[in-house]
Known about the structure:
Jelly Rolls, Immunoglobulin-like, 45% strand, single chain, disordered N terminus, mainly beta, 648 residues
Amino acid sequence: MKYTFTLAALIISALSFSQVTRNVLVEHFTSNNSLPSASQNPLFYGSIIDPNIGDVIHIAYHKQGGDIFGDADPSGVNGRQTRYGSTNIPFATMSGRIPDNSNTSGGNWLTYPGAPTGFTQTAIDNELLNNSDVSIKVTQSFNSDFSFLNIRCVVMNETSGAINMASQTLYISLVTETLNYSTAPNSNGETYFRNTHRGFVPDENGTALNGSLAAGDSIVLTFQEATSTDWIDLSEVKTVAFIQNNSTDEIIQAGESNTPSIGSSIDLTLEDATTYSSDFCSSTITPVITVTNSSNGTVDSVEISITVNGISQSTTWFDLPIIGAGQENVQLSSIALDTGSNEIQYEITDSRGDIETDYSNNSLLVSQLLYIPEDFDDSPYTFESDAIENLPERGYYRTYATSNNANILYVADQSISSSVNQSIGGFGNSENALVFDFFSSAEDDVIEFFLEENGASIIDATATLKLDYAYAERQNSGDRLLIMSSTDCGTSWDTIFDEQGSSLATTNSTNGRFWPTATDWDSLEFNFSIAPLIRFVGLSERRNALYIDNIVMDFVQSNDSQEDYANAITVFPNPFNDLININSSAENISMQELKYTIYDLSGRIVLSGNLISNQNTVEVGRLHSGSYLIHVTDRDNRFHKVINVIKS
C-alpha cells in the first residue's frame, strides 16, 4: 500500500469538558472456508452487528487459506490473531479482550470464549456504559479519478485535564462494509459479509501516540492510500480507527467514517451468452459474453482474460461503448477444450471510461463443459488401480455443484469406513467399486458418469454393455439411476435403464449407510445395433449409496463392415522395392484405428506399425527379396485383411 500521513497537535478551546461514551470495538476472526463460521456468523450479524450500528464498531478479519478475502492482508490478520492468542475460528474480541462469562457481564459464552454465539444485546449494552477520555472522528474522500483515498483522523482529549498518550497505538483498518452475494462465493455457504478487513494504514504496526495531550487538544493524522481492486467495491469502503493500549490490549476508543459518495461510475457484470453444441465430441467452443453496466457511468472498452482449467489463455481489449445502464455482447476467440470436464473463468481485468466501483462481480465461471473424443478402449472398468476417495482415472464425469459441497462420485474400498470388514467390489470378488454417494449428497443433486469408450467413430458395429451394481433403499425410500446411450456424441439420447427406489434395489432396505456384501450384487446387460456413447445419470433423493463395478463395453464389427474395410484398403506397388503404400479409399473409415504387420513365409514378424492416415508409405528397403504377407487389422484384432506381396 502507498501512503503519506502528517501529524499535528491542535489546541481547541471549549467551554466545558467531560468523558464520552466508549464505542464498542468488535474484532471478528472468521473464514468463509469454515463451517462453524457459516453456522454462527449470520445470527451474529443479524442480532448484534447490524442492530448496533453507530455503537458497535466491527472489523471482520478473514483468515488466509480457502477464503476468498484471505489474501488481502494475511500478515496483518495473523498479527492481530496472535496478539489475542485464540485458535478458534470464528471468534470475536470486545474492546481488546476475548470475552467470556467471567470478564464480561450479560453474555452467554458456553461454547468457548469469544464465540459469536455468546454475544448478547445485554453484553453490548453493559459495555456501552464505559466512558473514554478521548473521541475519534474519521472522515474520508476519494480524489477526482478515484486513484487515492484521503483519510483524516482526529483524536481529541474530551476531559478537563492532560492525558498521557504514551503506550498507546492508533490503528486504522480499511474495510468493505457490506458484501451480499446471490450465491455463496466459497465452500461454507455464506453469502453475507460485513466490514471485511482489506488492510491497515499505514501498516499493521499502526501509529504510535506519544507524550501528553492537553485538555481540548487534538491529534490530527492524514493519510493518502492508493485504491486497490482488493477493496472489491469502492462504494462500500470505509475507514475504522481505534486506539489500543500496548500493555493491556484495552481499546480505549474506536470510530469509523461513512462510506464515500460515488458520482458517475460503472458497475460491470458478465453473463454467458454462448450457444453450446449438444455434441460432446466438439473440441472447441466460441464464447459469447454479455457485459452489463448496472450503474450510471460510461464504458469505453474492457479487458477480458480467459483461464481454462486454471491455465491462463489470453487477455484482450474490446471496444465496448455503453453509456449509462445497458449491455453489449462480446464474441471471444475460440477455446480448445481439454479431454473430460472443463472449467472456464472469464474476468474483466481492466476497463476504460468512468471508475469501476464494484470488483466483486467482474468474473464469470462456466464449468462442466465436457469434451469426449471419438476414441475407445474396450478394457473393463474394475477400478482396482484407482485411488480411494478420488474420481476414477478412466471415464468422464460431471457432478454439478452440490448444495452441501460434498464429494459424491468416487472410488471406495472397505477402508473408507471402520464399520466395514468385507470387500465391497462386485460380488465380493474385488476390493474397489465406483460409488454414487447419494447418502452424502443433497436432495436433487445430479451425478453423471460417461464411459471412456466412445464408439461413435466405429462404422456399423454392434455393442454389448455389461456391469455389476448394488443398491439398497434407506427407510424404504430410494434414489434413481438412468443408463442412457447416444449414437451421435450426445446430441440425442435413448434411455435403456431407468429405475429408482425398490425397483433399483438389489437387496433389502436399510436404516443407515449401505455397504454391499457379496450377495447384494446384481448384473445388467444391454445390446445395441450400433456403437453408442454411454452415460450413467444418478438423481439423488439423499437416501443411500449405489455401487458399480466390472463395466465392460464390447464392440464387434459386423460382417458387412469388415467387407467395407477389406474392399477399401489397397496395397501397392506389388511387387515392391524400397517403399510400399497402404491406403484407404473410404472417407468414413478411421485409419487411425488400424495397424499393419508384415510376416515372412515362416510366420516371423519382420515389420509392424500403426496407420496414421488414409495414405501411408512404409519403408521396406531392409527386407530381403521374396514373398511376404501383410496383415491389416484394427488394434483389437477384430478386423483382418491379408494381402500377399512380393519384394523384388
